[in-house]
Design a protein that fits this description.
With 139 residues, the chain is mostly helical. It has helices at residues 6-14, 17-43, 56-61, 67-87, 101-124, 126-137. Helices cover 71% and strands 0% of the residues.
Length: 139
Amino acid sequence: MSAYDPELIEEANSIDDTAYLEDSALLKVLKAENAATRKWVDEHPGSCAGYLSEDLKHWHELGVYIPADFERYMLVNQISDSFKEANGFRPRHWNFDELSLEQLRAILNEIITDINEQQKFEDSDPVNDWETEAFFNNL
């Protein structure tokens, strides 16, 4: 096959430009997220972190095609994980598909605020410290 193959050129020209631009935008977001993670790891020696797959097929299988899909996917997972941390079980009472990105952001912010308030209470509760100390002294 020569460097100039008319069939390949025709095939390339028939590719949906919208899909290509969407994939490019998603890949740009994934690369930016991974770069930010690499920077954080470099600034915190001894730390480790997970990186996002840059394989677009992986994301397409999850229904993620554009940056907004990616944001929704990440918000839903953060809400689920944070809700479980705060309450001990995963949320089953929200239909995430019906919620806007703004609503998802608001829910996540509310859960994070609750977790921070709970942590402040636990950190300042002398009874909690006494109970923990008594428990470990009786082992």
